[in-house]
């Protein structure tokens, strides 16, 4: 075997007609391929970030219409937001419902996750199945189903009905995250703690809970974002005088499109960014969506 | 997920076992009473039963009723008997297929690229990949509205080189671009998982036996990442055909898709039974399609690729 010294520009990796005696080397072809890969990845990154960048940029324009690139820079549209109490009301409603959904779905997710993970009980496999199929049902269909169901029950729209509706979107995720966290917990650690005399609550507090702390926080923030951004379900549950922020924007944009909306959008992006940084710090964002093909 | 694949616990530690050891609390024993499990799970079960199962049953029940509440099959005969609605169904599936294909074409090279990066770079790129899912759908869609619009940067680019900019808004193009943008993460993440599971020694081994880079890619990487492709495609397809917001904003009323009609029938026409029927048709069709697709590919995407 001749070791390759092919680093000159003229050398392509093709040894003349030599079969079976190819040097395994990092040649020019390899480098070109790497460069190509990086360029491609950069393009994909641009594609992914473009709408956000456009939204942020056009919220700073001095024109009274949305344009990109923005003409001049101003924070006028953010000031304008303060003159629109309906946006603030919607924001507060959205935040309140989202916070509630986050807390409740975290608690439910932890309880259900523990139950599925370690207790045999009737209907357990059905429950597991339903949890994994819950997000296969189209949200729009769920929305109209809830609309008709609430009407049947005679429940008027309120922040509570909205919160309950959002639980269907968030609980399956929190359960999944908790289960993933518990799968990584070695049972013998709990048994050891118990064997050393720890009481059940102590075992739970000092051994079990730390193992799922990351997934719980991630699940809570995921639920927060999901509920805060939901439009599909909210469209069916809201009323004219109770509109979440996405619904408010959606309706506002039916008739006018000025930079106020992009300012609101930017505020929402910042809000999501903070949440993501927290999730990333705690568990890593990729865990949220890690669909395992080997299910 | 991995909930079912649990390692069988060792010998059951019953509280009355082994005299010297302190009592092992019931909570920690493997075979805790089923009541505890049911109690813990009950709030989640209640939520699912009352807010997921019940509304879906309500929906199916209503879809077989007239607006006055009498039993009827008319909602379904109307949908299936009208070529307009049949076209809507086909068009929905078509957009779903295009989006899935687009995600594969963009996502596969991206996943392969990610495979060779350092953990840190992967983390940052994953964040970029997930960013569309973490910003408001409304914001996202209107960002595309500006980008694809007749005065947007893409149109400007066409004008700069002296070309007529194609119509990129309120048509299938806009919807597919917007959908690929949202769905890319759902394709890439399973692909990454699949690619990571490939034994890193395989490619050098093949190269040592004289295979070229392309041969390695087509004969090793692609077949072994089929499970990831399958999972990603299933998720992307089923989420796309049921998406409402992005197609509604980017496609407008001219791009007629099933979720849009579910919405308009329910809110504008106030025909709940018909909206329910359309929604139920959507569920049934996507379920059948994804089941068939999974069945067709499962045999080929398994571990016996080299058979």
Detail the topology: elements first, then pairings.
The complex is a heterodimer of chains A (295) and B (307).
Chain A: H1 28-58, H2 76-82, H3 85-118, H4 124-133, H5 139-153, H6 159-183, H7 187-195, H8 200-229, H9 234-237, H10 245-255, H11 259-282, H12 286-289
Chain B: H1 34-63, H2 74-81, H3 83-115, H4 119-134, H5 137-148, H6 153-160, H7 172-196, H8 202-208, H9 213-224, H10 226-241, H11 245-251, H12 258-267, H13 272-298
Helix pairs in contact in B: 1-13, 3-7, 3-10, 4-7, 5-11, 7-10, 7-11, 8-9, 10-13, 12-13
How does this structure look, described?
The complex is a heterodimer of chains A (295) and B (307). Chain A is an all-alpha fold. Helices cover 69% and strands 0% of the residues of chain A. Chain A contains twelve helices and no strands. In chain A, helix 3 (85-118) runs parallel beside helix 6 (159-183). The longest helix of chain A is centred in the middle third of the chain and has 34 residues, at 85-118. Chain A is globular, with a radius of gyration of 26 Å. Residues 1-24 and 289-295 of chain A have low confidence and may be disordered. In chain B, 41% of the residues are buried. By secondary structure, chain B is an all-alpha fold. Chain B is globular and about 75 Å long. Mean pLDDT of chain B is 82; it is low at 1-31 and 301-307. Chain B has 13 helices and no strands.
């Amino acid at each position: 075997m001749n070791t390759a010294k092919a680093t000159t520009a003229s050398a392509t990796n093709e040894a003349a007609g030599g079969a079976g005696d190819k040097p395994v080397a990092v040649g020019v072809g390899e480098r070109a391929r790497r460069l190509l890969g990086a360029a491609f990845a950069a393009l994909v990154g641009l594609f992914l970030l473009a709408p956000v960048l456009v939204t942020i940029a056009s919220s700073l324009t001095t024109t009274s219409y949305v344009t990109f690139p923005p003409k001049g820079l101003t924070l006028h549209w953010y000031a304008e937001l303060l003159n629109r109490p309906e946006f603030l009301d919607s924001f507060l409603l959205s935040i309140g419902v989202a916070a509630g959904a986050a807390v409740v779905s975290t608690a439910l997710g932890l309880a259900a996750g523990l139950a599925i993970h370690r207790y045999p009980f009737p209907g357990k496999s059905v429950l597991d199945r339903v949890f994994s199929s819950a997000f296969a049902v189209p949200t729009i269909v769920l929305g109209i189903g809830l609309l008709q169901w609430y009407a049947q029950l005679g429940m008027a729209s309120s922040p509570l009905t909205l919160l309950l509706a959002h639980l269907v979107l968030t609980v399956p995720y929190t359960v999944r995250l908790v289960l993933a966290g518990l799968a990584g917990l070695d049972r013998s650690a709990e048994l050891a703690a118990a064997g050393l005399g720890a009481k059940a609550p102590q075992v739970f507090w000092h051994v079990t809970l730390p193992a799922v702390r990351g997934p719980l926080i991630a699940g809570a923030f995921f639920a927060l974002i999901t509920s805060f951004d939901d439009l599909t379900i909210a469209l069916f549950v809201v009323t004219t005088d109770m509109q979440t922020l996405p619904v408010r924007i959606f309706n506002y944009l039916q008739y006018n499109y000025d930079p106020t909306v992009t300012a609101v959008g930017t505020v929402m992006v910042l809000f999501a960014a903070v949440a993501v940084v927290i999730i990333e710090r705690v568990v890593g964002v990729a865990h949220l969506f890690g669909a395992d093909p080997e299910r | 997920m991995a909930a079912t694949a649990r390692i069988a616990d060792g010998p059951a530690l019953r509280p009355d076992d082994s005299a010297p050891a302190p009592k092992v609390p019931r909570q920690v024993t493997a075979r805790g009473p089923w009541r505890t499990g049911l109690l813990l799970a009950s709030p989640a079960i209640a939520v699912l039963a009352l807010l997921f199962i019940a509304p879906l049953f309500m929906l199916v029940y209503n879809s077989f009723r007239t607006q006055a509440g009498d039993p009827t099959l008319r909602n379904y005969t109307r949908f299936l008997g009208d070529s307009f609605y049949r076209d809507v169904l086909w068009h929905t599936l078509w957009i779903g297929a295009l989006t899935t294909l687009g995600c594969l074409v963009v996502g596969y090279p991206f996943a392969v690229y990610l495979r060779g990066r350092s953990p840190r770079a992967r983390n940052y790129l994953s964040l970029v990949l997930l960013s569309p899912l973490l910003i408001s759908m409304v914001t996202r869609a209107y960002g595309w509205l500006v980008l694809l619009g007749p005065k947007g940067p893409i149109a400007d680019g066409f004008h700069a080189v002296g070309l007529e900019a194609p119509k990129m808004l309120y048509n299938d193009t806009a919807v597919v671009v917007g959908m690929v943008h949202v769905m890319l993460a759902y394709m890439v993440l399973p692909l990454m998982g699949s690619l990571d599971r490939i034994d890193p020694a395989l490619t050098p081994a093949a190269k040592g036996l004289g295979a070229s880079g392309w041969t390695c890619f087509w004969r090793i990487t692609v077949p072994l990442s089929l499970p990831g492709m399958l999972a990603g495609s299933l998720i992307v397809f089923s989420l796309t055909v049921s998406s409402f917001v992005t197609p509604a904003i980017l496609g407008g009323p001219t791009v007629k898709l099933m979720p849009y009609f579910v919405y308009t029938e329910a809110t504008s026409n106030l025909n709940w039974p018909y909206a329910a029927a359309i929604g139920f048709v959507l569920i049934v069709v996507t379920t059948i399609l994804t089941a068939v697709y999974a069945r067709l590919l499962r045999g080929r995407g398994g571990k016996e690729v080299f058979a």
